């Protein structure tokens, strides 16, 4: 279809998987033809002993995880709305969540990829074995490309074993500077957390409600997650408590078993766009995270920070009712992020708001290089025209 279209009418194309991230980027500049990938859902090869799997890109992430669980394995990347999200869509948006601190992102797990470019040419990169270093790293190029370079059709992933135990420490703190001190200690700790999350009171209340756990939410919250064997997790949790004993933290609650799983899911799902007027993601050096959290909290934003990575997700309050209001709130925060070499990207808002908002802010990548890549993969600009800056 793509090849025929490129040779004929050249209609703009919109690759669609689970439709969980269609709001990312700018709206299409012209009417588009949807190319649905959800029927591409086969498992091509699963040599479990090699801890790799090759699947078609339309497979739902939840279905993939169920398959891997039967072999005691998993793809340790957090994907919100996994029952809808497809693997190809997760790769195209480079989605991740709290576990990126300990496990990394999809860039660390995609070792092979197949895709169709804007002219209909099928190409592949990488392979089905972990030790594969041949050729250009087109895998990483397509990850996060928002479907503007090619339509991903198949992917090979490396896997990890399922963890025996998950435990989360929910630590409430009176002041942000104490969280900053605690994070500094954690980064030099003997423990190895898989997640370091900071929630302001608004976000903490929402996560508590979603997880249906009895947790304090009247202060800032530091969530520290551990995974591993029973012995490993118990030792790390005890060591954490000893290391933070002098940090004057207000209260600590430990969750394991179903409680930890429910809380973990709520933390993953919190970053998904909901009915909030606007959702954004900021990335900046981890050392600047708490300063950004303080400024955003002062602006009335509900905020979740992957504090170990400097990735922050914010939801604007319901009383933000116009793009002008949103711009006034976001502009100082974007300046704060960009001042330290970071960025602030709008993930979700009303389509008409995007006409007045700089969705991607100031691009750090050279525009000429990006245009040359687009020209090489999609010379007629048929894939998601206008979606990226």
Question: What tags apply to this protein structure?
Answer:
389 residues; alpha+beta; Uridine Diphospho-n-acetylenolpyruvylglucosamine Reductase, domain 3; Alpha-Beta Plaits; 3 domains; eight-stranded antiparallel β-sheet; five-stranded antiparallel β-sheet; 12 helices; 24% strand; globular
Q: Given the structure, what is the number of helices?
A: 12
Query: How many structural domains in the coordinates?
Result: 3
Radius of gyration: 21 Å
Helical content, roughly? Answer: 25-40%
CATH overall fold name of the largest domain: Uridine Diphospho-n-acetylenolpyruvylglucosamine Reductase, domain 3
Strand order of the largest sheet: 13-10-12-11-15-16-14-17
Helix-strand category: alpha+beta
Low-confidence stretches: none
Find the count of extended strands (DSSP E, 2+ residues): 17
What's the order of the H and E elements? Answer: HEEEEHEHHEEHEEEHEHEHEHEHEEHEH
CATH architecture of the largest domain: 2-Layer Sandwich
């Amino acid at each position: 279809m793509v090849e025929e279209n490129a040779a004929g009418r050249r209609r703009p194309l919109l690759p669609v998987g689970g439709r969980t991230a269609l709001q990312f980027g700018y709206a299409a500049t012209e009417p588009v033809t949807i190319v649905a990938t959800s029927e591409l859902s086969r498992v091509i090869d699963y040599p479990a002993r090699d801890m790799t799997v090759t699947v078609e890109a339309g497979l739902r992430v939840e279905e993939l995880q169920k398959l891997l669980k039967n072999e005691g394995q998993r793809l340790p990347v957090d994907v919100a709305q996994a029952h809808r999200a497809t693997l190809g869509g997760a790769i195209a948006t480079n989605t991740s969540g709290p576990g990126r601190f300990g496990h990394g992102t999809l860039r660390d797990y995609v070792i092979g990829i197949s895709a169709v470019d804007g002219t209909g040419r099928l190409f592949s990169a990488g392979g089905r074995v972990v030790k594969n270093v041949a050729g250009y790293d087109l895998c990483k190029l397509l990850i996060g490309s928002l479907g503007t370079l090619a339509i991903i059709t198949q992917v090979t992933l490396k896997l990890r074993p399922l963890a025996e135990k998950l435990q989360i420490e929910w630590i409430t703190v009176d002041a942000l500077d104490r969280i900053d001190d605690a994070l500094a200690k954690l980064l030099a700790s003997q423990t190895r957390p898989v997640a370091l999350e900071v929630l302001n009171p608004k976000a903490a209340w929402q996560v508590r409600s979603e997880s249906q756990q009895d947790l304090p939410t009247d202060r800032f919250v530091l969530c520290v997650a551990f995974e591993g064997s029973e012995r490993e997790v118990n030792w790390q949790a005890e060591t954490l408590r000893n290391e933070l004993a002098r940090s004057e933290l207000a209260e600590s609650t430990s969750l394991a078993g179903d409680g930890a799983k429910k809380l973990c899911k709520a933390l993953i799902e919190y970053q998904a766009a909901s009915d909030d007027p606007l959702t954004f993601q900021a990335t900046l050096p981890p050392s600047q995270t708490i300063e950004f959290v303080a400024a955003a909290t002062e602006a009335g934003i509900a905020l979740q920070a992957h504090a170990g990575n400097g990735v922050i997700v914010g939801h604007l309050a319901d009383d933000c009712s116009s793009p002008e209001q949103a711009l006034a709130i976001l502009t100082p925060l974007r300046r704060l992020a960009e001042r330290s070499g970071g960025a602030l990207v709008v993930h979700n808002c009303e389509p008409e708001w995007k006409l007045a908002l700089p969705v991607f802010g100031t691009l750090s990548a050279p525009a000429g290089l990006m245009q040359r890549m687009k020209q090489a993969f999609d010379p007629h600009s048929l894939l998601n025209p206008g979606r990226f800056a």
